[in-house]
Write a structure and sequence with these properties.
618 residues; 6-stranded parallel β-sheet; 20 strands; alpha/beta; single chain
Length: 618
């Protein structure tokens, strides 16, 4: 994201003087490494996920003396990046990870890309070879700034010790303001070793970076008029509402207008699932009501959403009757995929608060929306095509039932982190999200292996909250080594492995679109034949593997034992708990809009296409 973006972010604390006021600190003489750790302390970083190596090693010596920054030693750099993301998503603060040069830095590429796609505030600190060796293909050298340029909001290469303090202050400011995102700070080893002076706060120099917080009043008035004039409006809520801390304002706006609310995968929990105005999640695997509401709407008010392909389906057929009000903190998103009739650039919290006032003014003048006919249609669709599932005929565990019961038995305020695939979609549907920041997932990048380290980061940041990772057996095998980190650092997360013996979502596509030819999706053996996992196959044995990493582990394959296993996990809080749920392999995610097709082609279940009649198209 270019430094010239017109963005905002008043919701985040700014770097401050050590005592919270204007700087009066005396100048100290430190090494660059000491300056780095002191800077992290001053910007409020209390947790760093990292793994040392040669070029970053100078920073690890003063880190040992810090009483304000906790370092959590991960087992893989990818785990550090996803943990920083989970920490940021759960706490609302900037997540921090720190690794060495070369392969250490390149192992952060996936979590950095993940954070960029989902607008997560993260600062990634990497060691770099000595400045004189940069460009010589020195041992463990990689141009990590060049590599990550397309996937960071900004990045810095620091070659002088005196630049470290102000660069860290600038990195945290950029990461947490405007549209949040990852910022990389690559520091040469000799800059960490050199002597410098330190005082706080430093002077930040960010020419061209001028965040805009206040939306244009004229655009707000136009949006309010459209809302009161519309017959079939929808509030299309994206993750930006969560990032802006605007969930209370959203509830006021929704109840004031009476318009239906649909929350994207990244926005679950920003509006209570149980609220009567909530019609579900839109998208490829969204509820029939949410998908159809957007298709039939005459006005879509998009708040912190980006009209991504998973929501729109075939773009030129998306919401053909709708005018668009698009409010976003990032002006580059407005008009990128769908032209906006009323574009609004601004912080979602301020946008929604101003919209509330403008709609109230319209109501005062006697202009109120009449959505009675619209709600008659919406309620009919909601009643006719609810999200549900069938229990397996053979009496085996249903993955949907497992996830639903985890949600129902979890303590209030539990944070759920999901991997990517079928279990992610089931967790989005069958767990109710009533509070913000209780649902963490990799939405834009779709990163397998996200759940375990993200849950670790969330628990580290919110130790008083229960944290469940809902993972698939495929995802789990990518990053499960971080369970060792959890066990050794008193981070007692709970992990549910939805074990169907296959890469479930890919297998579902092979079932539906590839004539049941299961090429390389069965995980229980090296030779894929019929695509059906063998009963009793345990390679790897997740219970033994988890126990070897210091976890308490349970296997559950009988529905009669389901509640007991979950209750046992909930009762253990002195170490990580892993439950290997052996579930039916043929369960599928429904509803579904096939990739590349129109949302009009939504299927409520296999072979079941909803019948909406013709009256909604008038």
């Amino acid at each position: 994201m270019p430094m010239t973006e017109q963005a905002t972010g008043a919701q985040h604390p700014q770097p401050r003087a050590r005592n919270g006021g204007p700087s009066s600190a005396s100048v100290e003489h430190l090494t660059g490494a000491q300056s780095l750790i002191r800077s992290l302390e001053e910007v409020g970083a209390d947790t760093v996920f990292g793994l040392p190596g040669g070029c970053i090693l100078p920073a690890y010596d003063p880190l040992m003396d810090s009483t304000r920054v906790r370092h959590i030693l991960v087992r893989h750099e990818q785990g550090a990046g996803h943990a920083a993301t989970g920490y940021a998503q759960a706490t609302g603060k900037v997540g921090v990870c720190m690794v060495t040069s070369g392969p250490g830095a390149t192992n952060l590429v996936t979590p950095i890309a993940d954070a960029a796609m989902d607008s997560v505030p993260m600062v990634a600190i990497t060691g770099q070879v000595a400045s004189a060796a940069i460009g010589t293909d020195a041992f463990q050298e990689a141009d990590i700034c060049g590599i990550t340029m397309p996937i960071t909001k900004h990045n810095f290469l620091v070659t002088r010790a005196e630049d470290i303090a102000h660069t860290i202050a600038e990195a945290f400011h950029i990461a947490s303001t405007g549209r949040p995102g990852p910022v990389l700070v690559d520091i040469a080893k000799d800059a960490l070793q050199a002597k410098t002076t330190f005082s706080w706060p430093p002077t930040m120099d960010l020419p061209g970076y001028r965040p805009v917080t206040k939306p244009h009043a004229k655009q707000i008035r136009e949006a309010a008029k459209l809302i009161t004039q519309a017959k079939r409006p929808v509030l299309y809520v994206g993750g930006g509402v969560m990032k802006a801390g605007a969930t209370a304002e959203l509830k006021v706006l929704a109840e004031l207008t009476g318009a239906p609310v649909t929350t994207t995968l990244m926005a679950l929990g920003s509006f209570p699932d149980s609220h009567p105005l909530h019609v579900g999640m839109p998208g490829m695997h969204g509820s029939v009501t949410a998908v159809t509401a957007l298709q039939k709407a005459d006005l879509i008010v998009a708040l912190g959403a980006r009209f991504d392909d998973r929501v729109t389906g075939k773009l030129d057929s998306f919401a053909p009757y709708a005018k668009i009000v698009h409010a976003d903190i990032d002006p580059a998103e407005i008009g990128k995929n769908r032209a906006a009739d009323v574009p609004i650039v601004g912080d979602a919290r301020e946008v929604i608060a101003d919209l509330v006032q403008a709609v109230q003014a319209e109501h005062t003048e006697g202009n109120t929306g009449d959505y009675a006919a619209w709600w008659k249609d919406l309620n009919r669709w909601r009643d006719t095509y609810p999200v549900g599932y069938d229990l397996p005929d053979d009496g085996s565990l249903s993955p949907q039932q497992v996830i639903q019961r985890i949600g129902e038995l979890a303590p209030e305020g539990t944070i759920f982190a999901a991997g990517v695939g079928q279990h992610q979609m089931w967790a989005s549907h069958f767990i109710q999200y009533e509070q913000p920041a209780t649902w963490l997932n990799s939405g834009g990048a779709g990163t397998m292996g996200y759940a375990v380290p993200a849950a670790m980061g969330a628990k580290a940041g919110m130790p008083e909250r229960a944290v469940w990772a809902i993972d698939g057996d495929g995802c789990f095998q990518m990053t499960n080594q971080e369970l060792t980190t959890c066990a050794l650092n008193n981070i007692p997360i709970k992990v549910a492995i939805i074990n169907n013996g296959a890469l479930g979502m890919v297998r579902q596509w092979q079932t539906l679109f590839y004539n049941q030819r299961y090429s390389n999706t069965v995980l229980h053996s090296g030779a894929d034949t019929d695509g059906v996992p063998a009963k009793g196959t345990r390679v790897p044995d997740f219970v033994k593997l988890s126990e070897a990493m210091g976890c308490y582990a349970i296997r559950c394959e009988d529905p009669a034992d389901l509640d007991k296993a979950i209750a046992e996990a909930n009762a253990i809080n002195d170490r990580p708990v892993v439950i290997d749920f052996i579930v039916h392999e043929d369960a599928m995610v429904w509803p579904m809009v096939a990739a590349g097709t129109s949302n009009d082609e939504v299927m409520a279940a296999r072979g079941v296409r909803p019948d909406f009649g013709d009256n909604e198209d008038d």
